[in-house]
Amino acid sequence: MGRMLLRPVRDTADDARAVQAVTAAAFAPSHALTDGGTAPVEWTAERLVRFERRVRHLARTDPGGCWLAEEPDTGPVGVALAGRREGLWALSLLAVVPTAQGKGVGTTLLARALDHGRGCLRGMICGSRHPVAARLYRRAGFTLHPTMRLRGVVDPARLDPPDGAVHDGTERHRDLLDSVDRGVRGGAHGPDHAELLRHHKLLVTDDLAGSGYAYVSGGKVELLAATSRRLASRLLTAALLYVPQGEPALVKDLTADQQWALDVGFAAGLDVAGGGYLCLRGMRPPAPYVPSDSYL
């Protein structure tokens, strides 16, 4: 690795741009998998704004989990962003520019990010199909659970209406959201909900049978958690019906435990394909749950 140095990611626009430049280089079309693994990223203006907010949010809440690898002559060559929420550690991003890959940069960054989760009983990573990433996470002690993704244009006529009330959520539902998180994944998202609410529609269901929530933006279901499969199906149905007509829908990182999601997706006319891996340590795949690859 030569003279590579590690330093914390700061809550600044400059550092957010540095993280974005590393990420764009690492996942550029010429280096990304296009067969269902790490898809090339289209850096629209909206995506850039969301990405900067995500980087700065994690730099504020988890300075010990956010690291840049730099070389004096070339600048930033790698980044890791990780957060800890109660007893759960989660990796939000690990990226290394192509010229620095194979030199131990990713291993070093992951080790530093994992130090931030020391004492956490559980760990979670939404990993791609890239073989190097899979090998790295397995060597770090994570169990790899193959995932699927649903994609396609929703046919509303094929979907039965939700079997119960689903309404718009707001910041006032934070206690409900955190309670569901603790029951499903063993740790609340806490401050992450404020960021998710900035860019996503929040749908909430809460009745005598239990409760749950889902975030959706455009065609992507960003995050979903519920206390039962029935409520999860209700929320996913509502989320898919919320997708703008004709816009492709996307539901990612579904493990084999999420058959309820496949049933809803197939009913809506979506196709299923292989994804990457949900990498877990100290826990089984949370269900019913659809993780966010940014906030898990």
Automatic annotation (TrEMBL):
Record's keyword annotation contains tRNA processing: no
PROSITE patterns with a match to the protein in the record: GNAT
Residues in N-acetyltransferase domain copies: 4-160
Gene3D superfamilies cross-referenced by the UniProt entry: 3.40.630.30
Molecular-function GO term, any one: acyltransferase activity, transferring groups other than amino-acyl groups
Keywords for this protein: Transferase
Record-annotated membrane-spanning stretches: none
Keyword Transferase assigned: yes
CDD domains per record: NAT_SF
Top-level lineage group: Bacteria
UniProt-recorded name of the protein: GCN5-related N-acetyltransferase
Originating species: Streptantibioticus cattleyicolor (strain ATCC 35852 / DSM 46488 / JCM 4925 / NBRC 14057 / NRRL 8057)
